[in-house]
Amino acid sequence: MPYLPLLAFAVLYAGATLAWDLPPLVAGAYAVTSLSCFVAYAIDKSAARKGGWRTPERTLLLLGLVGGWPGGLLAQQWLRHKSAKRSFQAMFWATVALNVAGFAYLSWRMAGA
Questions:
Q1: Nearest residue to 60 via CA among 37, 85, 78
Q2: Global pTM?
Q3: Residues 8-22 as b or e (16 or more Cβ within 10 Å = b)
Q4: Long-range contacts made by residues 24-29, C-beta under 8 angstroms, separation at least 24?
Q5: CA–CA separation, 59 and 47 (whole Å)
C-alpha cells in the first residue's frame, strides 16, 4: 500500500506522455530530483544516528515539492526515516499533492502550446 502513490503517479505520467507527448527531460528531472531527495534523506538518517548536523525538514520538503517526492517516499519506506513523524508526514503529503497538481497543470498547458 505505501507504493500506491508511486504507481498512481506512474499511470498519470504515462497517460500525460501518451496524450501530450511530454519531452524526456521531464522524466529526467523527476529522476534527478528523486535521487537527490533520497540521498538527502539518507544523509539526514545517518546524521540522526550519529548525532551530527541534520538536514532541515524544510529542505527535505522543498526537494519533494520540486519533484523529488518519489525518492522521498522510497527513502521513508526503505530507510524508515521521517515515516512516523505526523507533522512532517502532513507537510510531505501536502507537497506531493502540490507537485502532482502542478505536473498535471503544466502538462496540460504544454499540450496547448
A1: 37
A2: 0.92
A3: ebeeebeebeeeeeb
A4: 26/107, 29/67
A5: 15
* Cβ atoms of 7 and 44 closer than 8 Å: no
Residue 79 in 3-state DSSP?
helix
- How many residues are recorded in the chain? 113
Domain extents in the chain:
4-112
CA–CA dist 64, 54 (Å, integer): 17
Express each pLDDT in 39-72 by its tens digit. 999 999 999 999 999 999 999 999 999 999 999 9
Contacts within 8 Å (CB) and 24+ apart, 51-56: none
| HSE-CB of 104 using CA atoms within 13 angstroms | 11
Q: How many Å separate Cα 15 from the centre of its chain?
A: 19
- Say if residue 26 is exposed, middle or buried (CB neighbours under 10 Å; 0-12, 13-18, 19+): middle
